[in-house]
Amino acid sequence: MIFKYTNILIMHTGIMNTDKINEINIVLKDFFDNPSNPRCVLAKSLMPLFIKHKIFNSDHREGLPIRNLLRALDRENKLNLIPFVQAERKTKNIYWYFMAAKTPLPQQFSLNSSQHSRKNSDEYYVINLCNKILGLTASQQYRFDFLRGDSGVKLPVDAYYEELDLVIEYHEKQHSEKVPFFDNKNTVSGISRGVQRKIYDQRRLDILTQHGIKVVIISYLDFGVTKRIIRDTEKDTTIIKNILIKQLAK
């Protein structure tokens, strides 16, 4: 049905690149028909898929080809030709997403000029509770000079309490469950992101411990079986207190 209406719109608008738009819609439908794929992704992250299907010859400037196409449709008020597209409009920029039908844009995908805004994420929720319990404010996404990835870039930690020489890491589902679309992508080290994540998790633990820094790991599984925390503040505070007491006593 999506493609029937898309073809009708194309016939009446005479928009350029009609074959390319149809091919993009087919690829997106197949992608979202696979339940193991995320329901919402940045448009630029699907460039490898578009290149694989020969919709674009190559990528440059992090998804510029698909962004240019979407901008052109936007200027002509014809974004409806790609039913999967969602635009998040900022003062200076537009951030493009592809989403499964009827999927709302998650709050944690809201962007600023350079990165995802994480203030509504479970990670920030957990760290804020840790701040209240400890009576301190963590340095979030802190980077130690001695903790680096394979490319030499400093690896961030979720929360660092300098006064306690303490790092707290919140492990979301991707740390314990596979997310095939993202995990299977290769890194500069020649390994998949899923494998790299496990290596970096262990590297953080090993190197921080060697430098006398205590590491506490809190998992989404500590709060129940749901992938997102339901957020009962009183109950969650008790859970975190017990984790801190147990792990700091080791």
Summary, kept brief:
39% of the residues lie in helices and 18% in strands. The chain has helices at residues 2-13, 18-33, 47-52, 64-75, 122-134, 180-183, 193-210, 233-248, and strands at 40-42, 85-89, 94-99, 139-148, 154-161, 166-171, 214-219.
Q: The biggest beta sheet, please? A: 4 strands, mixed
Low-confidence stretches: 1-15, 106-117
Supply the number of helical segments: 8
- The Rg value, from CA coordinates, equals 21 Å
How are the strands of the biggest sheet laid out side by side? 4-5-6-7
Distance between the termini: 59 Å
Approximately how much helix is present in the residues? 25-40%
Number of E strands: 7
* Inertia-based shape: elongated
Secondary structure category = alpha+beta
Strand content: 15-25%
SSE series: HHEHHEEHEEEHHEH
Instruction: Provide the residue-averaged pLDDT.
Output: 81
Summarize the structure in words.
With 250 residues, the protein is an alpha+beta fold. 39% of the residues lie in helices and 18% in strands. The protein has eight helices and seven strands. Strands 4-5-6-7 form a four-stranded mixed sheet. Strand 5 and strand 6 form a beta hairpin. Helix 1 packs antiparallel against helix 2 (18-33) and helix 5 packs across helix 8.
